[in-house]
Amino acid sequence: MKRILRLPLLLLVVLASGCTSIEPWVSPFERNNLADPIMSFNRAPVASGYLHHVYQAREGARGAEGGSGGGCGCN
Amino acid sequence: MQLKTTPESGLWRFIVTAVCLLPGLLFPATAAAAVLPEDRADVMYHVYDGGGLKVDGPSVLVRKAYKDKVSVWANYYVDMISSASIDVVTTASEYTEKRNEQSIGIDYLHGKTSMGLAYTRSEESDYNAETVRFGMSQDFFGDLTSIGLSYARGRDEVRRNGDATFEEKTDRQNYRLDLTQVLTKNWVLALNYEGVTDEGFLNNPYRQVRFLDPQEARGYAYQAELYPGTKTSSAFAVRSMYYLPWRASLRGEYRMYSDSWGVNAWNLEVGYTHPFDFGLTLEARYRYYDQTAADFYSDLFPFRSAQNFIARDKELATFTNHSVGAGASYRFETGWLPFTKAAEANLFIDWMSFDYQDFRDVRVTGGAPGAERLYGFESLIVRAFLSVYF
Known about the structure:
The complex is a heterodimer of chains A (about 80) and B (about 400).
Chain A: H1 2-16, H2 32-35, H3 45-58
Chain B: H1 10-26, E1 40-50, E2 53-66, E3 70-83, H2 86-91, E4 95-110, E5 113-123, E6 127-140, E7 145-160, E8 163-184, E9 187-200, E10 208-212, E11 220-224, E12 230-244, E13 248-259, E14 264-275, E15 280-291, E16 319-333, E17 342-360, E18 374-389
Antiparallel strand pairs in B: 1-2, 1-18, 2-3, 3-4, 4-5, 5-6, 6-7, 7-8, 8-9, 9-12, 10-11, 12-13, 13-14, 14-15, 15-16, 16-17, 17-18
C-alpha cells in the first residue's frame, strides 16, 4: 500500500506548495496550436481504448493508460 | 497483500481527503475554461489476428452533451473469439467464444471541475466482470495545468466451461492520478500514475504448467497452474506532444511498470501525425515493449508441484515486442445529413511482433524437454471506424 500511495502524495505536496504565486506563461490567444485536434492525447477514444485492451490482454503490464475494465477475451 | 478500504484504513483517509480537499483548497476558482468532450458517435470494426488467435467484432460509442454541463455516453463492444493459440493447441482444444461489453457513463462540468461516473459490464460464457469508475479533474494555473484523480472498483466472476461446480471471484481496485501541463504554446506534457490491486482467483482456469516427468514418453507432463491470491501493481507514464512548425504533431511516451509478482516492464512509443488541408490526416507510430518474467514463472519445472506458486502463461514470461502502425483519417462535412456537423472515416493498421526469451514452442517434437526453439509470433490489428460529430 505504501508503494501505491507514495507517488500521488508526493505530487500533491509539490502542487500544493506552489499554488499561489504562478502566473500563466501561455496566454489564451497563444493556444491555437494546442487546441488543434492533432494535439489530443486521445483523438479517437473508441480506437485507442481497443488498442489498450489488446496490450492488456497480451502483456503483463497494466495501468497508466486508457482502456476499459472488464473481461479479457484472451484465454 | 490484503487491501481493505475500511473507514479506519489509511487508504480510506487518503481517498476522502483527496476528494474533499483537492477542488476547494488547491485550485483557485476562476472563470470556466474546461469543456466537455464533443458530441460524437463512433462505429468501429476491429480485428486482431495473430498467434493462432482471431478476435473481431464491432464497437459503437455515442456521446451527447446537454447545456454544456452534462455529457452522457454509452459504448457497446463485442469480441468474437476463435482461438487455436499455442496454449490452446498444446493443452486443450480449439474453441470459439463471444464477449459482450456494455458501458455507460456521465460527465458533469462545473466551472473548472469535471466529474465522471462510469459503469462497465462484460459477459463471456466463463467470465463476467463489472467495473464502476469515479473520477474528477480540475484545471488551474490559468488552465495550463490539469489534474485528475480516479478510483475504480471491479468485481469479476470466473467460471470454467465443462465444470459446473467451478466458480471463483476476483476483486480489483484502481487508483489513478493524471497531471497534464502546458509547457509552451506548442508543447504539452502529461504524467500518469496508476496503482492496481487484485484479490481473489487470478490465474487462468484452463492453462497448465509443464514439468519434467521421466514416465512420459515426451519427457514432461502437465499440471494446473497456481497463482498467488493477491497482486499489486504500479505503472507510471510520461507522455508528451509537440506541435511542429508545418502543422503536424510529434508525440512520445515512456511507461514503466512493476508488480508484486516480480514482473517489471517498460515501453517506449513515438508517433507522428500530419494533417492535410483537404481533410486527410495521416499518422505513423512505433512502440517497443520489454518485460521480465514473474518470480514463479518457468517454461519447464523440475518436478510436479515444484513451488507453491507455478505459472507458464506466456504473458508472464520474459519477452519483447515491437509494433508499427499507420493510420488515415478523412474528415468531411455532413450538411446534407440532419443533426450532424461532420464525419470522419478512419483506418488504422498495426503490426506486432513478439519474441519470447523463456517460453518454448512445445509443438516442435523430437528434442529434449527444455531444448525446443523459443516461441515468437506476429499479429495484425485493424481498426476501421466512422466518427460522426453532431
